[in-house]
Design brief:
By secondary structure, this protein is α+β, with helices and mostly antiparallel strands. It has helices at 2-6, 10-13, 23-27, 37-41, 71-87, 102-116, 123-130, 161-173, 201-216, 231-234, 238-243; strands at 53-55, 68-70, 95-97, 147-150, 179-180, 197-200. The chain has a single domain (2-249), classed as Muramoyl-pentapeptide Carboxypeptidase, domain 2 (2-Layer Sandwich), CATH 3.30.1380.10. Bound molecules: zinc ion.
Length: 252
């Protein structure tokens, strides 16, 4: 696994999601406001105090506690939630997790690392196991204020009853509101399928492009100020995990 990843050239990595041709990037400057771009894209800021973020509960979006997204994303999600309520009044919809900064992602990573290190032998094996469903700090789409998890974090939930109705609706309609499912079934690399994770394409595709430009070929810059367990073993694969997403999550 490790040696195979080393053999992937950077040019091949970008084939997973060729966002480089997005003309939108050339004409729009993405606002980061009070945060430097390199810090924003690695989640090294506090979303609850960032002026471009909003508490989605205050937008009337059902959610699990105080959760934050960028204002543009919350507006689009509120519109989509209204459409879901209209089409599927019997189905509950809520946001389980939204923006997670470096510290939150690192806390998840270290908790899982500690638990797995009791049974799994090598650092590479521990990292690979965590990476099935969780990103390294500094590489998560949850850093960008564009991505959120809904309802239940299990693929099986979306195969029957209300979960299946909701997933079918999202597959058909989410794109109308700008949303895509990055971690679909059938991709060869990266994180496993996640039917609960949705992303706001108009902004996320731009952030992904800039992340690639800043860190894609220099992954050690991700951990320049702060490390996490196993970082030395796995940071070389950061771009592969960031880019192994569904093509619908790129602006075509
Ligand atoms: Zn997620």
């Amino acid at each position: 696994m490790k040696s195979a990843l080393f053999l992937i050239p950077i040019s091949a990595i970008f084939l997973f999601c060729n966002c480089a041709s997005i003309s939108f990037f050339e004409t729009h400057k993405i606002p980061y406001d009070i945060i430097e771009e390199e810090d924003y894209l690695r989640g090294r800021f506090e979303p609850s105090t960032h002026p471009l973020f909003v508490n989605i509960a205050e937008f009337g979006i059902p959610c699990n506690g105080d959760l934050f997204l960028r204002r543009e994303v919350a507006i689009a999600l509120k519109e989509m939630y209204s459409a879901i309520k209209k089409d599927l009044p019997e189905v509950k919809f809520w946001v389980q997790s939204a923006t997670r900064n470096w510290n939150a992602q690192k806390a998840i990573w270290e908790k899982k690392w500690e638990a797995l290190s009791k049974t799994v032998k090598t650092k590479q094996e521990i990292a690979s196991e965590i990476l099935r469903f969780f990103s390294m700090p500094g590489t998560s789409r949850h850093h960008w204020g564009t991505d959120y998890d809904i309802n239940i974090l299990e693929n099986e939930y979306y195969t029957n009853k209300d979960g299946a109705k909701l997933y079918k609706w999202l597959k058909k309609n989410a794109a109308t509101f700008g949303f895509c499912q990055p971690y679909t079934a059938g991709r060869k690399d990266g994180h496993n399928e996640e039917r609960w994770h949705w992303s706001y394409v108009p902004l996320a595709a731009q952030f992904q492009k800039r992340w690639n430009e800043l860190f894609g070929s220099e992954p050690n810059k991700i951990i320049a100020e702060e490390q996490f367990s196993g970082a030395d073993e796995i940071i070389h694969s950061a771009a592969m995990y960031v880019n192994a997403i569904d093509k619908k999550c790129c602006i075509q």
